[in-house]
Amino acid sequence: MQIGGLGLLAILALGYFAGIDVTPLLEQSSVPASSATITQADKRAGMFVSVTLADTEEVWDQVFRAQVDGAYRPATLVLYKGVTQSPCGGASGATGPFYCPGDRKIYLDTGFFITLSNQLGAKGDFAAAYVVAHEVAHHVQNELGILGKANSVRQRVNQAESNAISVRIELQADCYAGIWARQAERQFGSLEQGDLQEAIHAARQIGDDTLQRNSGRTPMPHTFTHGTSMQRVRWFEVGYQSGDLTACDTFSADQL
Ligand SMILES: [Zn+2]
């Protein structure tokens, strides 16, 4: 265990205030010291995530008040380094950030922010905030009962059909992330010049076609699970421009 004194307290305080579960960060005594070391970059990531998560809570609280019959129950975010377990399976740098409906938690690796800017070429704090907002959007889908329904259909169909449903789930999450961006701008005035472009650029960089092309493969639409770069940007903008949950109904859209 490499964190002690003030570092440990800072991380505990962070978790306490922001609804972030930091136990994986604190339970690292069994792994090699090098990967257990909590670096400045990890702390910055933790701080950033806690602020972003708090922002999403305020935003979704507002949106639920205005558009949904029922209060918003925030998600918990599990911030870890290296590997950890979830009811949805193991989490690691290789899985990337994900939301697990089983325990209503978002799993986020501190190293992801470095990957995002170095390997995926999506620099900027708003790009990172967009990723957090996208995962929170899956939680919103879960709270609205959409995720459970879609996933139960996915279990009854073939792989290609299951992938197609996955694309609609993901594009809706991008659309919800757009709603968050719009609301965040209104509530906090927190968007700087170029922020929106950062988010749109991040959405573009993580489109299935772009990811497959960048890894030297020919894009194969039937294997897409998140949608193309163009679709991801488009749905983010639908959410951003409308601010309306019903406008994000990717499941009944003819054209994605
Ligand atoms: Zn997603």
Describe it for me?
By secondary structure, this protein is of the alpha/beta class. It has one domain (5-248). Helices cover 57% and strands 9% of the residues. It has helices at 5-18, 23-26, 33-36, 40-67, 112-118, 125-143, 146-154, 159-188, 195-205, 208-214, 229-242; strands at 20-21, 76-80, 83-86, 89-92, 98-100, 105-109. The strands form 2 sheets. A 4-stranded mixed sheet has the order 1-2-6-5. A two-stranded antiparallel ribbon has the order 3-4. The radius of gyration is 18 Å and the shape is globular. Residues 1-18 and 28-34 have low confidence and may be disordered. Residues 134, 138, 170, 173 line the site of zinc ion.
Can you list the strand order of the major beta sheet? 1-2-6-5
Helix-and-strand structural type = alpha/beta
Ligands: zinc ion
Runs in which pLDDT lies below 50 for 5 or more consecutive residues are: 1-18, 28-34
- How much is the average pLDDT? 80
Total DSSP E strands: 6
Approximate shape? globular
Q: Return the domain count.
A: 1
Features:
disordered N terminus, binds zinc ion, 6 strands, 256 residues, alpha/beta, 11 helices, two-stranded antiparallel ribbon
Task: Describe the secondary-structure layout.
Layout: H1 5-18, E1 20-21, H2 23-26, H3 33-36, H4 40-67, E2 76-80, E3 83-86, E4 89-92, E5 98-100, E6 105-109, H5 112-118, H6 125-143, H7 146-154, H8 159-188, H9 195-205, H10 208-214, H11 229-242
Parallel strand pairs: 1-2, 2-6
Antiparallel strand pairs: 3-4, 5-6
Bound molecules: zinc ion (ZN).
